[in-house]
Amino acid sequence: MADWKERILRLGKAVKLERAAEEAYFRDLAATKSIKERIESGILWYPVEITKQHYTVGEYVELELTPASASAYSKSNSFRVGASAILFINKAERIELRGSISYVSKRKVRIILSTDVMVKNHLIEGGAVGIELIFDDRPYRVMIDALEKVTRSKEKPIITLRDAIYHQKIANNRLANIPPLPKIVGLNESQITATKTAHAAQHISIIHGPPGTGKTTTLVELIRGLSTYESKILVAAPSNNAVDLLAKLLHQKGLRVLRIGNVTRMGDSITELSLDEQVRNHEEWQRIKQVKIQSEKAHREAGKFKRKFGAVERQNRGLMYKEAKQLRNWARDLEDRLVEQVVTNSQVICATLVGCASEPVRSMKFRTLVIDEGSQALEPECWIAMHLAERVIIAGDHQQLPATVKSKDAEHLGLTETILDRLADRIDESVLITTQYRMHPKI
Known about the structure:
alpha/beta; 6-stranded antiparallel barrel; 7-stranded parallel β-sheet; Rossmann fold
């Protein structure tokens, strides 16, 4: 590519085309397909029964739903954990509640609603309940924003990465006189070489190999070693499952891990590492909760005054509303400080690539970013996280099939070509891991 700006423009156009294709897919299903066809396509369960509901982490409401009959759902199920969806109640006035899928099985789905209000029986009475996947454009918006920042950036790390990725040209990519990594346990020779090469790389390095060669294991040992020299490391991947696995393994190694993101998109085994859960398990949380309760009580008391009241009652109501607001602001300040404390205490921050566009990650700076599943990571996704770090270590299998995109035009513009594809065989700081642990020796 003669001009990196041309590549960025093409990627931006490709992201917009993919967004349009995804949106058109959902719009077409909603507008032209019958309920039966949408059920058969796997994006709709209708009607369903609410079998359970409870408050979950972050004080959101989680509902468990089962199909009311065999014809209410399809075996070709498109529901996935983390997908955006609406719970709707079909009655004279349709009710819609937005949320995220938190669990999926053959005949059961759970949704965490973006509300803290239980779905009362009177809401459902006289109506049929359904759940349907919807289009979510946030990933596309943050990818486009990240690409625009690449074009505008004057920061040296971004300029260096830009040159490396688009021109396969990188100078001074080896650090001199670096302290050795702590003793590495349980890795083979090629894995140890990969950790040492990544540790010594100043700007970018690649760890690649076929499935079953222990790339994730290598990353965990590398991150454990780097944590002795760096106060915080950013770890990211395109999928929630990959991020959850890394977070879990790093936690098991004794590192202080913070998993950033929507708790509805995390696996049950690592919710204890989420920001919401760590804040609520902190000894200071009960104090904050009491202040919130006092604020709500003052607000309720103020609302008890009748419309027709005298000057004294009006003044008292105003004072109560003022007190409620002050208590609410105090609780928010206390919670902000507690969040900052939890973040400061963490050694490793784990998030999806798109999740890196959310607070508190987007306001942070890191020495090192580690990206796993690099063969599935669209380049615009990677830039979201790469803006936050001085160097990047990418792991994956560049022989693996790329992420699936709906738009053929977006694919032709290069959206499926990953950074791993471009650099795995072109930079010196790229190590192939070869020993196979998963397949039968004859394979």
